[in-house]
Amino acid sequence: MTIERFSGAELLIKALAELDVEYIFGYPGGSVLDIYDAIFRQDAVSHLLVRHEQAATHMADGYTRATGKCGVVLATSGPGNTNCITGIATAYMDSIPMVVLAGQVASNLIGGDAFQETDIVGCSRPIVKHSFNCRSVEELPNVVAKAFYLAETGRPGPVVIELPKDILIPDNTAPFVMEKDVKIRSYNPNVKGHTKQIKKAVEKITKAERLVIYTGGGIVIANAAEQLTALVERLNAPCTNTLMGLGGISGLHDNFIGMLGMHGSVEANKAMANADIILALGARFDDRVTNKVEKFCPNAKIIHVDIDPTSISKTVNAHVPIVGLVDVVIDQITAELDAVGHKPNKDDFKEWWSEINKWRALNSFSYETSKDLIKPQQVIESIYKHTQGDAYICSDVGQHQMFAAQYYPFKKPRQWINSGGLGTMGFGFPAAMGVKVAFPDSHVVCVTGDGSIQMNIQEMSTCLQYNIPVVIVALNNRSLGMVRQWQDMIYGGRHSSSYMESLPDFVKLAEAYGHVGMQINHPDELDSAMEKAFSIKNRLVFVDVLVDEKEHVYPMQIRFGAVDEMWLKKGEKV
Amino acid sequence: MRRILSILLENEPGALSRIVGLFSQRAFNIESLCVAATDEPTLSRITISTFGDDKVLEQITKQVNKLIDVIKVADLTERPHIEREIVLVKVLAMNNKTRTEVKRIADIFRGDIVDVGKQIYTVQLTGDEDKISSFIDVLNHETEIIEVVRSGTVGIARGEKALRV
Question: Which pLDDT does position B1 carry in this prediction?
């Protein structure tokens, strides 16, 4: 009996199907045409054609953030690959698993400056978890299996596989052999936290008088939201989330004290600054959280749980470092609490809560409405109302991103999708498309601005081709709002290049792409227009909302200050 | 503070560039770097001489460890260890006096003259960084140095402690 042999392109698609890949997000070109031919001749894996490779990476990324499944990107050699760079970096900064299949010129041409040749492994090296130069057709399925394993385990991240054309062509064949149970001798990420450290942590937690549980994207990635909520309730502790961690505990939960950091709530930042014990779970003390590191929470002892040892004591020193999967470590902490006889008590942290409630009463997210101008905050509240708080909110980067984070309480993890680490403008729309592909029956909203949306607006064409009816809500302030805000506050009001002069007519543009366009420019119209936008189920709706261009995002940490030194509004500090 | 890191990693294409890339990307210093395959041909051993305070060193060690190709990392300077570097120095040796003097210095440092030309001597010396530096200083005082090639430091822990799979 002869063993069936396949081309590299066929092996690749077989391997993806074997790993339950549903979608490839990509764009064809010379070096990957054999892969496109193999895709054409099967139907286990679908391909979605974008209009720009960057959008393919964000689409895969959005799909992954919503589903937890590793996204797959396919791009051709040269410009196809370099166009992926921003998307790879975005995924890397937020620890999102992604496998990028990067076409390459034939092996005998590599290094000779061939047409559409770039060293994509070299270009992407600082922004990938790992990369492979696949050099033979025989090893291809195992390289794919390794790439997925690395992308999805430990601290997840993007993995690039470089595929030279000569290992994909029909006359270079091999049998399909793939070890799904991958073992890599040099890669053994920790799972459980060290028992001694868990004991130390619990000792500190049970003795704490002013405990804060500070959680990040790790809770979302590890699907640990339920465990976190149970721990928070058991300890009756206040819990704050980073921008990446929103939804880790319900935004409506009594113990949730809001997002912390640069545009966080006063109560969250005050609680951090006054805490005696901080339990950090899957968060990395980013500079947008800490403000000036030297002034960060001087009186707190820090218990830092993270899967990545490099995150621990990188910026802020941890007193009790714990390396492990955050869901596993929460279970260990809970078990240890049981073991030391800790009993939940509603009166725990009573004094601490009364202090926190005083900060809460400042109502730091309050804002003034106007008779004639739509406030951006109002728009987010209206989206919340008309989606019953159940939508996937995919945001771009800027003021609208902060407003969405502040005014849409996320009930569940994975509901809030944004580029928190890299801050990639142009991320929101393709990410929303990836989410909608995975959840066609859910409300999927791209909250964007007149700047960000134009960085990937061409994808409206993709939405028409595959019927991806997301709702785009652009908070249109005729300027680059966050840049302008900094220029107002720090650069003497000199608005250098922060205007978007000559904006297109977004309504006509949406219509030109075959979609529905709407414009709202008066507060009285907001509710009814939003209701209408969300009642249209089978078409993409672009809602262009003309908002007050002078509005700033508050509260805002004062530069080079402590975590809790903030502007409450113009001229008012706390 | 000067530190010597020993790294055991997969002998794969691209593995070295990941290490070097990491150091430049994160603004860590490299004073010298030595790399070669080990007795086990699937493994490479890198010795990096670097400097930084404890916090920086902790980050370097963790970041290097995080690279997928890396199997083990050890800070040799934490424990008793042996360091060696090899240097080849080409010097002008125009007359008898200089030749005698260069030979004498080489002998004192236990170096060897490994090549002799009409007007040049090439001297080889092994030792730790300090010894090599002072050797070069002394030679420089005596004659004109034409070329210096230093290998960078390699190192190994003393006693039974070993870096292996």
Answer: 87
Residues of B in contact with A184 (CB under 8 A): 68
- The mean pLDDT of chain B is 95
Q: What is the pLDDT of residues B90-119, one digit of tens each?
A: 999 999 999 999 999 999 999 999 999 999
Q: Which superfamily does A195-360 belong to?
A: TPP-binding domain (3.40.50.1220)
CA A482 vs. chain centroid, Å, equals: 19
CB within 8 Å: A131 and B9: no
Annotated catalytic, A115?
yes
Does any CB of chain B come closer than 8 Å to the CB of residue A341? no
Judge if A6-174 and A195-360 fold alike in CATH terms. yes
Tell me: domain A6-174, CATH 3.40.50.970, correct?
yes
pLDDT for A551: 96
Q: Which of A14, A129, A146, A165 does the annotation list as catalytic?
A: A165
Strand pairing category for A392-395 and A416-417: parallel
Distance from CA of B111 to the nearest CA of A (A): 40
DSSP annotation string for chain B: -EEEEEEEEE--TTHHHHHHHHHHHTT---SEEEEEE-SSTTEEEEEEEEE--HHHHHHHHHHHHHSTTEEEEEEGGGS-EEEEEEEEEEEE--SHHHHHHHHHHHHHTT-EEEEE-SSEEEEEEEE-HHHHHHHHHHHHHHS-EEEEEE---EEEESTT-----
Look at residue A501 in the predicted model and tell me its pLDDT: 81
How is residue A194 annotated by DSSP?
Answer: P
HSE of B1, CA atoms in CB hemisphere, 13 A: 12
* A121–B69 CB contact, under 8 Å: no
Q: Does A175 touch chain B (CB under 8 A)?
A: no
pLDDT(A572) > 90? no
What is the CATH code for A376-553?
A: 3.40.50.970
> pLDDT class for A2, splitting at 50, 70, 90?
confident
Domains within chain B, CATH numbers bracketed: 2-78 (3.30.70.260), 83-154 (3.30.70.1150)
Question: Considering chain A, what is the average pLDDT of its residues?
Answer: 97
Q: Which of A121, A150, A186 sits opposite B70 (nearest CB)?
A: A186
pLDDT at residue number A62: 98
Q: Is A82 on the interface with B (CB under 8 A)?
A: no
ipTM for the predicted complex comes to: 0.92
Return the SS3 of A67. helix
Do residue A121 and residue B14 have CB atoms under 8 angstroms apart? yes
The distance between the two most distant Cα atoms of chain A, rounded to a whole number of Å, is 83
pLDDT in tens, B29-52: 999 999 999 999 999 999 999 999
Contact A266, A311 (CB under 8 A): no
Asked if the Cβ–Cβ distance from B59 to A186 is below 8 Å, we say no
Q: Kindly report the nearest CA distance between residue B59 and chain A, in angstroms.
A: 6
Per-residue 3-state assignment (H helix, E strand, C coil) for A152-193: HCCCCCEEEEEEEHHHCCCCCEECCCCCCCCCCCCCCCCCCC
Confirm or reject contact between B21 and chain A (CB < 8 A). yes
Give yes or no for A294 touching B (CB within 8 A).
Answer: no
> What is the side-by-side order of every strand in the sheet holding A566-569?
A556-557, A566-569, A572-573
Domain borders along chain A are 6-174, 195-360, 376-553
Give the pLDDT band (50/70/90) at residue A570: confident
The reply to whether A468 touches chain B by the CB within 8 Å rule is: no
**Cis-peptide into A555, omega within 30 deg:** yes
B residues 100-139 lying closer than 8 A (beta carbon) to A: none
Q: Is the pLDDT of residue A1 over 80?
A: no
